[in-house]
Design goal:
By secondary structure, the protein is an all-alpha fold. It has helices at residues 2-13, 16-42, 54-73, 79-83, 87-112, 117-124, 126-139, 145-164, 180-202, 208-231, 242-267, 272-294, 300-326, 335-339, and strands at 170-173, 176-179. It contains 14 helices and 2 strands; from the N terminus they run ααααααααββαααααα.
Length: 348
């Protein structure tokens, strides 16, 4: 008991920005690490199949995350709390679970196999822009000139990346060509932003533990059924491969367990300003990690898009900080709002 209390005291004494910094660094590396272990699987085929396929990584990663969430949040799953959730909220929770827990991750993992990490990072920045736009149009959320200017510049950066920086398999749309991976990221960002708006506006009364575990369970089941329908049940034939689990234990320990624990611990005392800063640094670090881990060198188009996005994010950060000074209620973000802060791909 004494050791447990000392450990808890030590955890509480570490400043929340330290935990957020560790989490952001891990999440920034997650896409590159995922691509790297898939490449390792391609050199260790089993009967011609890659045991560390993207589908297997997503499925097993979700299971590892579920185990972590159950350990952390099981006190929330009491019958009294479950009965307190209205039927409308269960329906909305189910919708967000399918959107952000199954479809969006599946699209991101598809994109990981079709385009480079830098494009995924840059185009993924459209998510907070869409979330802001939807919040403004549907709920009349306040948007200052700084934030509006930042969003416009960021949209220009995303457009530059899509039109001039596409790679891999291409799709024709009229006279324009788009990369298939880039389209997957854009659709995933749209889906995630819709889910985020629903979560922030309609699901604030639901305990974070119920929200995260239910979304994870539903997302895992839906993804498994969807992949089985599209590719056949044999697509998961190597899901129990010792070689897969050898690498997934490393992946899950670093990306899922350490990353998520640091993120959740940092959220306890983090202010919106600190979360905005984390959101600002994540794409920059993700591009750096892609270079260090995969050797990806940004193209001129990606430099252009990334520069515009960086300027846009900085302007939005200034706007958010200015708005927080005017309205201190913004410092009282709910747990779900903080959990859904746009921080890019988190490995699951």
């Amino acid at each position: 008991m004494i050791k447990a209390n000392n450990r808890q005291k030590f955890i509480s004494q570490v400043p929340s920005p330290i935990y957020l910094a560790i989490a952001v660094l891990i999440f920034a590396a997650s896409s590159s690490v995922t691509r790297k272990i898939v490449e390792i699987g391609q050199t260790n085929l089993i009967d011609g199949r890659n045991p560390i396929s993207l589908c297997n990584v997503l499925f097993v990663g979700n299971l590892c995350a579920l185990g972590l969430m159950i350990i952390i949040f099981h006190p929330d799953w009491k019958l009294k709390k479950l009965k307190a959730i209205s039927r409308k909220n269960w329906i909305l929770l189910t919708i967000t679970g399918i959107l952000s827990g199954a479809i969006a991750p599946a699209l991101i993992f598809t994109a990981l196999g079709k385009t480079n990490i830098t494009n995924i990072v840059l185009i993924g920045r459209i998510e907070p822009i869409l979330t802001l736009l939807l919040s403004f149009l549907l709920f009349g959320s306040q948007v200052n000139l700084w934030t509006m200017a930042g969003s416009i510049v960021s949209v220009a950066g995303v457009a530059a990346t899509i039109f001039f920086g596409s790679s891999g398999q291409m799709m024709n749309l009229g006279q324009f060509q788009f990369g298939f991976g880039e389209i997957c990221v854009a659709i995933a960002s749209i889906i995630t932003s819709i889910s985020t708006v629903i979560s922030k506006r309609q699901l604030q009364s639901i305990p974070l533990g119920i929200f995260t575990i239910y979304r994870n369970i539903l997302g895992t089941i839906i993804f498994f059924l969807l992949a089985s329908f599209l590719y056949g049940i044999h697509h998961f034939v190597d899901v129990f491969s010792p070689f897969l689990w050898q690498w997934m234990l490393i992946y899950a320990t670093i990306i899922v367990v350490v990353g998520q624990l640091c993120w959740l611990t940092g959220l306890m005392k983090a202010t919106p300003t600190q979360l905005n800063l984390a959101s600002l640094l994540n794409p920059i670090l993700a591009i750096v990690m892609a270079y260090l881990i995969l050797g990806e060198i940004p193209t001129l188009a990606q430099y252009l898009g990334g520069s515009l996005l960086l300027i846009g994010v900085i302007l939005s950060f200034i706007g958010n900080s200015y708005q927080s000074k005017i309205n201190r209620e913004l410092e009282k973000s709910s747990a779900i709002e903080k959990m859904d802060t746009s921080i890019g791909f988190r490995g699951i």
